């Protein structure tokens, strides 16, 4: 049996609600896509860590806020809207 050790830097965030569910769901999704177990776990940790880093700057809800799963989608949408506005203005 092989063992693996995974580490990430700590992210100081009050928005940690749902991190365990996010991590387990991400690992499951990566396994379902065909990844081997160590790669799926590493990718799940990286995904969850990415979400934690994105929600450091804002507060979601009361108490321990949740992760902001749609951060990347909103960033892309903002970029598209900005491009459209620039086309209309110019």
Written account of the structure:
- By secondary structure, the protein is mainly alpha-helical.
- It has one domain.
- Helices cover 57% and strands 0% of the residues.
- The protein is built from 3 helices and no strands.
- Helix 1 crosses helix 2.
How many domain units?
1
Q: Please report which band the strand proportion falls in: under 5%, 5-15%, 15-25%, 25-35%, 35-45% or over 45%.
A: under 5%
**What are the low-pLDDT stretches, counting only 5+ consecutive residues below 50?**
none
Number of helices: 3
Protein structure class? mainly alpha
* Count of individual beta strands: 0
**Alpha-carbon distance between the termini?**
62 Å
Helix fraction?
55-70%
- Indicate the radius of gyration in whole angstroms: 17 Å
Element order, helices and strands? HHH
Mean pLDDT: 80
Please provide a brief summary of the model.
The chain is an all-alpha fold. The chain is built from three helices and no strands.
List keywords for this structure.
90 residues; single chain; 3 helices; mainly alpha; 57% helix
Helices, strands, pairings?
Elements: H1 19-32, H2 37-54, H3 71-89
Helix pairs in contact: 1-2
